[in-house]
Amino acid sequence: MGKAPAIIGVCSVILVAMVVAVAVGVTRNHSESSEGGGNEPQASKKAVQAICQPTDYKEACENSLTGSNTTDPKELIRAGFKATIREIEKVVNNSGTIQDAAKDPMSRQALDNCKELMGYAIDDLTNSLNQLGAFDASRLDEYVENLKTWMGGSITYQQTCLDGFVNVSTEAGEKMRKLLNTSQMLTSNGLAMVSDIPKLISDLNITGLKKSDTEWAQRKLLAKDGFSPWVSFRQRMLLQKNLSQMKSNVVVTKDGSGKYNNINQALKEVPKKNVSPFVVYIKVGVYNEQVLVDKFMANVVFIGDGPTRTIITGRLNFADGTTTFKTSTVAVISPKFMAKNIGFKNTAGAIKHQAVALKVQSDQAIFHNCQMDGYQDTLYAHSHRQYYRDCTITGTIDFVFGNSASVYQNYKLIIRKPLDNQQCFATAQGRSDRRETSGFVLQNCTFSGAPDYLPVKARSKTYLGRPWKEYSRTIIMQSQLNDIVTPEGWMPWAGNFALDTLWYAEFNNRGPGAIQTNRVKWKGIKKITAAQAQQFTAGVFLRGAEWIQNSGVPYTAGMIPGV
C-alpha cells in the first residue's frame, strides 16, 4: 500500500552502505582513466547488480532497473517497485486481448476476477507502504515483516488469477499466464530483496542495528498501558473493553427493531478510510445474503448473538457456474476486520463441489467464537495475517485452504460425510514462493467426525492436508487427533508434486490419529524440536503482541500450557 517512504526508510539504512561502497570502489578503480562523469553508468550498473543479487530472477531484476542511471538506493528501490506496478497495470490493460479466447461463462468470470485481483496486487505494492511512515530503527523487524506480508499478498493475488482458469477448457488461462510472467518474476524479486534485509544488516554490521539493539527496541514497543505507541486514544478505549461491551455503530435485525435488516446496507455507513473500530451488531437470525466487506471498510467489527444463533448463509458454488473465488457467503477484504459470535454458512452441499462460506483477505483479521459450515472449501484463508480462536469449522475437502499466515487456536475441525467417491482433506495451504511468510498453524485443535461421517470413515479417509502449491506449509501442534485421521497423515496433491518442497510438521499431538509410525516419508515432512515449534506460535509467527494481544479476544502467545 504506498510507495517510497517506507521502503526507502528501511532500505536506505542498509543499502546506502552497500551501494555507496560499490560506487566508491568503481570510482577509485577508474578515477585515473576516466573523466567527465564517465564512471556513473558503471557505478549504476554495479549498484543494480548488488540490489538484484538475492533475487531468483536476476536478469528480470536488472532489466527492470537498467534505465535508472543512479546509485541512489532510494531511486533504485522506487524504480523496482514502480516497474512491478507497471507490469501489473500492463496485464490489466492487455487483458482485453484474452477476451476472444474467454468464450465460455467461466472463462469470462475468471478474466473479470483477474482484473479485480490485479487491483489488490497493486494495492499491496503501493497503498500499504504508505502506512509505514518514516524509518524508526526500533521498529525495523515490524517494517520488514509488513513488507514481506504485503509482497506475499501481491504474489498470491496473481496466483489466484491463474487458479481461476484451472478448470476452464479454453486457452484463455495460458494467455493470462504469459501476460503475468514478468510481473510474477518482479514481485518475487521484490520479496527476495525485502527478505534479505536482516542478512544485509548482519553482514554489514551496521552500527546501531545489532541484535542486542533491536531486541531492546522490541521491549520498548509497548507503552505503559500495554498498547503499541501508534494505537490511537479512541482505539485504546475500545480495545480495553470486551468486544461484547463495545457500543454498536449500527444494529442489524431480522425483526425490524434495528436500523437495518440487511448487513450490506448497514456496511454502507462505514466511513471511507475508517481508522476506528466500526461495530456492526447483528442480532439473532438467519441472514441469507452475500456480504462484502470491501477494501475501503477498514476496522469493521461484526458481533453476533452466538455462532449458531446469528448466521450469515448462502449457496453459491462452482457446479452451478460461479468461480471458487466468488462463491463465498462472506468476503472480507479490508484490513483489521474482527468477528465474534457469528456463524458463516454455505449450504450448497457436497454435490456442488467448491462452495466457500467465508473468504478472508483482510490483514490482521481476528475471529473469535465463530462457526464456518460447508463441505468443500469452507474457509478460504486467502492472504495476509489471520488469527482464529475458539472457532468451529465443518467440511470435507480442503476446507481450510488459501495462502494466509494464520494461527488457529482451540479450533474444532469436524469432518462431514463426503460424496461416495471422495476422500477428506482438512487443509490445503497454498504458499507458492519459498520466501513467503505464509502458512497454517493449528494449535490445540481437535480433529473429529460428524455423526454422518463416522459410519463411512473407513471408506472415505481423512487426511491432515495436501499441498496445494509448491511450498505449502502446515504445522499441527498440541492438538487432539481422533481415529478419523488416517495413519499416513498426509496425501499428495498429484503425483510427486511438491513432496520435496512442502513444509509439514506435527508436534506434541495426542490421540489415536497422532501416532506417526506409518506417516508418509516425504522429504518435506519435518521433525521439529520444541525450539522450532516455538517459532510457529502466535506471538512469533504472527507477531501477535502488536495486534492480537489487546484486541479483547483470548490469546496465547506461546505454547498452550497443560495440553
Overview of the structural elements:
This protein has 563 residues and is an alpha/beta fold. The protein folds into 3 domains: 214 residues, Butyryl-CoA Dehydrogenase, subunit A, domain 3 (Up-down Bundle), CATH 1.20.140.40; 148 residues, Pectate Lyase C-like, CATH 2.160.20.10; 145 residues, Pectate Lyase C-like (3 Solenoid), CATH 2.160.20.10. Helix content is 32%, strand content 19%. Strand 1, helix 11 and strand 2 form a beta-alpha-beta unit. Helix 1 packs across helix 8. GO terms for molecular function: enzyme inhibitor activity; pectinesterase activity. In the N-terminal section; belongs to the PMEI family. In the C-terminal section; belongs to the pectinesterase family. Its EC number is 3.1.1.11.
Main beta sheet: 11 strands, parallel
Under CATH, the topology of the largest domain is which?
Butyryl-CoA Dehydrogenase, subunit A, domain 3
**CATH homology-level superfamily of the largest domain:** Invertase/pectin methylesterase inhibitor family protein
> Low-confidence runs (pLDDT<50, min 5 residues)?
1-37, 207-236
Amount of beta strand: 15-25%
Number of helices: 13
Total of domains: 3
Averaged pLDDT: 87
**The CATH architecture of the largest domain:** Up-down Bundle
What percent of the residues sit in helical stretches (DSSP H or I)?
A: 25-40%
Structural class: alpha/beta
Short description:
It holds the Pfam family Pectinesterase. The protein has 563 residues and is α/β, with parallel strands linked by helices. The protein has three domains: 4-217, Invertase/pectin methylesterase inhibitor family protein (Butyryl-CoA Dehydrogenase, subunit A, domain 3, Up-down Bundle), CATH 1.20.140; 234-381, Single-stranded right-handed beta-helix, Pectin lyase-like (Pectate Lyase C-like); 396-540, Single-stranded right-handed beta-helix, Pectin lyase-like (Pectate Lyase C-like).
